[in-house]
Amino acid sequence: MTKTKLQIMREKKGLTAEQLAEKIIKSNDFTGIAFKVIVRDLKNFEIGRYPIKFRENAAFIAKDLGCSVAELVEDK
Predict the structure, then answer these.
(1) Distance (Å, rounded) from C-alpha 20 to C-alpha 18?
(2) How many C-alpha atoms does 48 have within 13 Å on its Cβ side?
(3) Is the pTM of the predicted complex or chain greater than 0.85?
(4) Cα angle vertex 61, ends 52, 35, to 5°?
(5) How many domains does the chain fold into?
């Protein structure tokens, strides 16, 4: 299975999906969003079930990975 850009960037930072979710919640004060929802969304993005687009979620993920949104969005 080919890795998505999100998975590659996350692994470069040495983070699991769960660790990245924790980082996103803490840095953005997302206390109202369930941890498991963010983990599920990250994993769905990674397997390509849902594409990351130029939306808010991509911006939050990119910020916490220290990369640009463009680096996460898959080429079609």
Answers:
(1) 5
(2) 9
(3) no
(4) 100
(5) 1
